[in-house]
Amino acid sequence: MGGVGAALYCGTGCFHRRESLCGKIYSKELQFDGLLGGMSKETTIEELEEASKYVINCSYEEGTQWGKQMGLVYGCPVEDIVTGLTIQCRGWKSVYYNPNKRASFLGIAPNTLEVALVQHKRWCEGMFQIFISKYCPFTYGYQKIKLAAQMGYCCYLLWAHISILILYYVIVPPLCLLHNISLFPKVTNFWFVPFAYVYVVRNGYGLVEALSSGDTLKSWWNLQRMWLIRRNTSYFVAFIDTISRQLGFSETTFTLTAKVTDDDTQRRYEEEIMDFGGSSSSSIMFTITSTLALLNLISFVSGVVTRLAFVPQFIPQVTLSGVIVMVNLPVYEALFLRKDNGSLPSSVLIMSLFSLFVLCLLPIF
């Protein structure tokens, strides 16, 4: 997107021209004294106190263009993305700049899975809201930004929809394997080549890109783990919540990301132990993760025990379940082996087993 002048404005570490954010629209009552500088008249302490109360109340923005044509755009959980889009639609160009790979801006990232999932849920909701609002890049950006930029924005704004496709691949193939139903061509069949090509090229390209950027094989594998978990949980819940809001069943809320951690959480983070930090606010997402992990574990074990793993038409499904099992190894540890505060609570295990039982009873075809 940087190549077409549409680099995303997201998070921190962004520089803006004042004119790009605020424009050149001034109040008629505003008078500048550029030669003398300072204020046009002396102001008393009492007047400053009254003005500060007015500013704190935030009512000074009512009836103005703030939040619409000036400053950040209001009404969206990801105000940075939609603000960047509106700025680019006014004709401004944005670029990515990384001066000598220096850490110019440092922030605090989530160090527990719970906080990370909640954060991505908020981002996903906000970007989905942009896509179905008047700020959709294909309509709002028509003839204002390039088609490549419009499509590039959709790679982010359609995160929520990806969850449906990913859920299909982690639910339907293992269920069909349990019922001895083959979904993919035999590995000896020519039509198996496109499936294998897409899988190998996609992951191979991602691995090469990660290694060339200075990451390790372990960090790339952890990224794949988070990629799968987020799409099965945060993105799916965000999709459902956004649809319910569009139907009028709920209102938009802004969920803060917790940045304060205790000593135990910090210790697990430094020891590279996945901290689930389970609580009632994210029990639904943890239940989804655990249920899918258990489903693929049972499917994989069943395929190996019944020797379906050696039947050509079932090898792709057994392999897929095996990869998902490897990705979810920390989930199994948190469910059955770990007893620390960063593990998954027993309530999640009970709900996951119940959900798994219901899934296994579903008729397939």
Automatic annotation (TrEMBL):
TM stretches of this protein: 153-171, 183-201, 284-308, 314-332, 344-364
Keywords recorded for this protein, A-Z: Cell wall biogenesis/degradation, Glycosyltransferase, Membrane, Transferase, Transmembrane, Transmembrane helix
Record protein name field: Cellulose synthase-like protein E6
Organism: Cuscuta epithymum
Cellular component terms per the entry's GO annotation: endomembrane system; membrane
Subcellular location: Endomembrane system
Principal cellular location given in the protein's record: membrane
Pfam families for this protein: Cellulose_synt (PF03552)
Molecular-function GO terms, alphabetical: cellulose synthase (UDP-forming) activity
Gene Ontology terms: biological process: cell wall organization; cellulose biosynthetic process
Source organism, top-level taxon: Eukaryota
Signal peptide: none
